[in-house]
Specification:
The complex is a heterotrimer of chains A (about 280), B (about 300) and C (about 290). Chain A is an alpha/beta fold and about 280 residues long. Chain A has one domain (about 30-280): P-loop containing nucleotide triphosphate hydrolases (Rossmann fold, 3-Layer(aba) Sandwich), CATH 3.40.50.300. Chain A has helices at about 5-10, 70-75, 80-85, 105-115, 130-140, 145-155, 160-165, 175-190, 205-220, 235-240, 260-265, 270-275, and strands spanning about 30-40, 45-55, 60, 90-95, 100, 115, 195-200, 225-230, 240-250, 250-260. In chain A, strands 6-7-8-3-9-10 form a 6-stranded mixed sheet, with helices on both faces. Chain A has a 4-stranded antiparallel sheet with strand order 2-1-4-5, covered by helices on one side. In chain A, helix 9 links the parallel strand 7 and strand 8 (about 225-230). In chain A, helix 5 packs parallel to helix 8 (about 175-190), helix 6 packs across helix 8 (about 175-190) and helix 8 (about 175-190) runs parallel beside helix 9 (about 205-220). The longest helix of chain A is centred in the C-terminal third of the chain and has 14 residues, at about 205-220. Chain B has a single domain (about 70-300), classed as MetI-like fold (Orthogonal Bundle), CATH 1.10.3720.10. In chain B, helix 3 (about 85-115) runs parallel beside helix 6, helix 5 crosses helix 6 and helix 9 (about 215-230) packs antiparallel against helix 12 (about 270-300). Chain B is globular and about 70 Å long. Chain C has helices at about 1-15, 20-50, 60, 75-105, 110-125, 130-145, 150-175, 180-185, 190-200, 205-220, 225, 245-255, 260-290; strands at about 65, 70. Chain C has a two-stranded antiparallel sheet. In chain C, a hairpin with a 4-residue loop joins strand 1 and strand 2 (about 70). In chain C, helix 2 crosses helix 13 (about 260-290), helix 6 crosses helix 7 and helix 10 (about 205-220) runs antiparallel to helix 13 (about 260-290). The chains are: A alpha/beta (about 280), B mainly alpha (about 300), C mainly alpha (about 290). The interface between B and C is large, with 81 and 88 residues. The complex binds adenosine-5'-diphosphate and magnesium ion. Adenosine-5'-diphosphate binds next to helix 2 of chain A.
């Protein structure tokens, strides 16, 4: 499938939904994971994970570390084949009603639609412009004259354009941590993804940069859906519409509860969730 | 009785300990001096090697003006004609040609090993490359002489030619340059590779659009090290290039390199002639040193300066 | 049911990150280059083996060469080879070990002397081997009066492989966990004691690997020996006699003896065999060092 043609398709879900009143909208999900199991060296890292993501929704994944949050998120765009090459993945992943895993289609196309931002900012150690151009090339965009506009657009939407417009040839790794992370988000936005996966995007950043990223994530809701993995319950409360709680049971990560953030944070159904929210494990 | 109360720690341990400490100290000192002396000798060997070759070349100065090496009409030392041009050109053409061939091939192999192949295949091929990189060069020379030269000879006689020199030298340096590039690729931080794939990049783009721009210095230094090996190689070129001291007009003409010239003539050279041979090796020595220092500088500034 | 099976099939194929069409195409092109190169190496070995293996038998290993090597065996040549290698390793091993120990344990990293070491070893490691040949013939053979002999050849090779081994040793020692160092010094051990009792015993496998690497390099050398250990294919009586090593035997048979190709191939098989033996023992020890 040609990515450019897909990029120009209007997104039915995004149109008109600027003001999201209902926190958990009904309707067909953008992304759906069914019965995901990831096995590594004879044990299950995660088991039987079922989650769906609605259009223009921010889903927070919370839970203690080591319970497979990163693993789960990286199955969603099949990055797990690179991060854990020996892992065995089972289950199904559906994107916009199409089966994307298991699938013989190229993972590169999937990753243009389901973008990812990592815990530690990972800009490439060359110029800011080349970083952005790399992402455009990765999308299969061959129309070079259009690059400058698209780069400006993306950098504007992460509030970096004014600061960086005269420094486009600077090496990206010289930027501050928060700027680097925003650059990485801008890079991910260039493919106009349906879903962006954030794996603890703030845990390597200072509180001010962290606030900037949180604001940004909430703005992103206008154009796509977001899954954010976080350790920080306050952050989950601030940015997300819905929460999914991961927990380690018999050595394997499972989802023990999902629900609207307000409810999870105030009146969780599950005993462990309640204890976790109230900090009883500290 | 008295002695027992003389120190804060009663008992016989004190004096015995001290004697142990003294022998240990002298062992320490001796060890230190031996190592330091060896180190000094090791570093001095460079000077000695350079000095010996320089003194070997010394008789040339004052007897033959340096420009004559480039302006004489012919290489005929017994009749006083010292035209080193063909050998200089021969050395440069073979080694630059070999590096020109080996660099893209090595890059392709290193890229395949790191971005396309399964880990098992890649490690198997790495092991083979490791063995081939140290293979005695006379093996390549012998194979070239018996297999490649006749083949080229069928295209155009005599077969012993610049082309065969380039091909065999390239075959000889490919394992080295590939392993150097492979090591550079392997040092690339994983988060960068994951970042590229997460953006939806193909393997080709990840390799040539991300890894290569970051590692271009390392690739250049691998090519330069290959150039150093090709320039200094002797036995292969003696065996397959025909050793004719004339400027080549085509790829199929025989040539002679500086190293081959020394190998062929050192045995019977009179002092002045011998000094010109030392001079040509001195030139190679200087070029090799320059290349080594350049590579050193590239490596120092060319590391992947990413704090991810 | 049939859909289930369909999914399973997909699942097997999607086990690792599959390449897209563009990647598969370029990989195909790359594979052609890769296989061309490796098939060529295979052909090098195959051609030489198929020519030479027929001549090798017990008498080939135990006889002296006749008719300038067209007939007979290679016994004196094997003896010379082993002696030259033994001299080279016997000189190079302690020297390079001492240099590396001094650099890692006594010199501060980044000090002037340590960078002097780096640059001098770097220069030595990149000097063309024929330069060592000229150096050896003027310094060891003429200046020190050792003549064209096994000793001259061995010493020349030693000078050639010292920088290679010293570099490799430095790398080995730098990888030693600093905890060993602080632990030993905390127990009151001096540097010498630490080196002799901790470093060398823990790094034995690595040291053997490096020595074999150097031996392989010495075995592979031809040019540096042409003017130092000589061409004589007679049995050396002492270390001050000239002797012909295997690589020079191949070179001489292939270049100056008409009809010597088959015997050259036989010697080449021997050389490759020796070389592979050394490399595989080296690989064994390096695997032992880094399991
Ligand atoms: N490279 C690896 N090798 C082996 N096990 C791993 C690796 N990476 C992660 N794991 C295992 O997977 C589990 C989940 O890891 P992860 O998904 O990173 O957890 P989280 O993101 O929730 O902290 C961990 O318990 C760890 O044991
Ligand atoms: Mg994690």
């Amino acid at each position: 499938m040609n990515i450019i043609s897909r990029l120009s398709e209007p997104k039915p879900a995004a149109a008109g939904h600027t003001a999201q009143v209902v926190p958990c909208p009904a309707g067909p999900p953008v992304l759906e994971a069914r019965a995901i199991r990831v096995g590594l060296a004879g044990r299950d890292i995660i088991r039987d994970v079922n989650l769906s993501l609605q259009p223009n929704e921010i889903l927070a994944i919370i839970g203690p570390s080591g319970c497979g949050k990163s693993t789960f998120v990286s199955t969603l765009n099949r990055m797990i084949h690179h991060t854990l090459p020996t892992a065995k993945v089972e289950g199904e992943i559906w994107l916009n009603g199409g089966l994307v895993f298991p699938s013989s289609a190229s993972a590169a196309d999937l990753r243009c639609k389901v973008a990812m931002v990592f815990q530690r900012p990972n800009p490439f150690p060359f110029s800011i412009r080349m970083n952005m151009e790399f992402a455009l090339k990765a999308n299969g965009d061959r129309y070079r004259p259009g690059y400058a506009d698209k780069i400006e657009q993306a950098l504007r939407s992460v509030n970096l354009w004014d600061r960086l417009k005269d420094r486009m040839n600077d090496v990206a790794t010289r930027l501050s941590g928060g700027e680097q992370q925003r650059l990485c988000i801008a890079r991910a936005l260039l493919s106009d993804p349906d879903v962006i996966l954030f794996d603890e995007p703030c845990s390597a950043l200072d509180p001010v940069s962290c606030t900037a990223i949180e604001t940004l994530i909430q703005d992103l809701k206008q154009r796509c859906s977001v899954i954010i993995v976080t350790h920080n319950l306050a952050q989950a409360r601030r940015v997300s519409d819905r929460c999914a709680m991961f927990w380690l049971r018999d050595g394997s990560g499972e989802v023990i509860e999902t629900g609207p953030t307000d409810r999870i944070m105030t009146a969780p159904n599950h005993e462990i969730t309640r204890a976790y929210i109230n900090g009883e494990f500290c | 009785m008295n002695r027992e109360f003389s120190g804060p720690f009663p008992g016989a341990a004190g004096p015995r300990d001290r004697s142990v400490a003294r022998t240990a100290l002298s062992l320490e000192a001796l060890f230190h001096y031996v190592l330091a002396a060896t180190f000094a000798i090791g570093c001095a060997v460079v000077l000695v090697v350079g000095f010996v070759i320089l003194t070997g070349a010394l008789p040339v100065f004052g007897r033959i003006p340096v420009l004559q090496f480039l302006s004489d009409s012919d290489w005929h030392p017994t009749s006083g004609l010292y035209d080193l041009k063909p050998m200089l050109v021969g050395s440069l053409l073979t080694s630059v040609g070999a590096v020109g061939l080996a660099t893209p091939v090595s890059l392709i192999i290193a890229a395949s090993l790191n971005f396309f192949m399964s880990g098992l295949t890649a490690s198997l091929l790495r092991r083979l490359l490791f063995v081939m990189a140290a293979m005695p060069t006379v093996i390549f020379g012998f194979w070239g002489l018996t297999q490649v030269v006749p083949l080229i000879g069928k295209l155009q006689a005599p077969g012993l030619s610049l082309l065969s020199g380039i091909l065999i030298l390239a075959l000889m340096i490919i394992p080295t340059t590939t392993l150097l590039m492979d090591a550079a690729f392997a040092k690339l931080p994983k988060p960068l590779i994951h970042g590229a794939f997460a953006l939806g990049a193909t393997r080709k783009l990840t390799c040539f659009g991300m890894a290569l721009p970051i590692l271009r210095r390392a690739v250049l230094s691998a090519a330069l090290l290959g150039l150093g090996r090709a320039l200094g190689e002797t036995i292969v070129v003696v065996m397959v290039t025909g050793n004719r001291a004339e400027l080549p007009l085509s790829l199929f003409d025989p040539i002679r390199t500086l190293t081959a010239n020394v190998t062929l003539e050192m045995g019977y050279a009179d002092p002045l002639h011998g000094a010109t041979l030392f001079l040509s090796i001195l030139v190679l020595f200087v070029i090799a040193t320059g290349l080594a220092l350049l590579v050193h500088a590239l490596d120092r500034t060319g590391g992947v300066s990413v704090d991810v | 049911m049939s859909e289930r099976r369909h999914l399973n099939r997909h699942h097997r194929r999607a086990g690792s990150d599959r390449m897209g069409r563009a990647d598969r195409l370029i990989y195909l092109c790359f594979l052609m280059v890769v296989s061309l190169v490796f098939l060529t190496y295979g052909k090098v070995i195959f051609d030489i083996a198929s020519q030479g293996i027929g001549q090798i038998n017990l008498s080939y290993l135990t006889d002296a060469p006749r008719q300038s090597g067209r007939a007979g065996g290679v016994f004196p040549i094997l003896v010379s080879t082993v002696l030259v290698l033994a001299i080279a390793v016997a000189v190079a091993l302690p020297t390079s070990l001492a240099i590396a120990l001094y650099v890692t344990e006594y010199l501060a990293q980044g000090s002037a002397l340590s960078s002097l070491f780096r640059s001098s070893m770097l220069i030595l490691a990149s000097v063309p081997s024929i330069a060592f040949g000229l150096f050896g013939s003027s310094f060891f053979a003429q200046f020190l009066g050792l003549g064209t002999s096994l000793l001259t050849g061995g010493l020349t090779l030693a000078v050639m492989i010292i920088p290679i081994c010293a570099f490799a040793f430095v790398e080995v020692f730098r990888l030693l966990p600093t905890g060993y160092r602080t632990g030993a010094y905390a127990l009151g051990a001096g540097k010498a004691r630490f080196i002799l009792c901790v470093m060398i015993p823990t790094c034995t496998a690595e040291i053997i690997t490096v020595v074999l690497l150097g031996t392989g390099r010495a075995l592979a050398e031809t040019a540096a020996l042409l003017f130092t250990s000589g061409y004589s294919d007679r049995m050396p009586e002492s270390l001050l006699d000239p002797g012909r090593v295997l690589s020079i035997h191949i070179y001489d048979l292939a270049m100056s003896i008409p009809g010597g190709d088959r015997m050259a191939a036989a010697s080449a098989v021997l050389l490759i065999g020796l070389f592979l033996l050394i490399s595989s023992v080296g690989l064994y020890f390096s695997k032992k060092a880094h399991p």
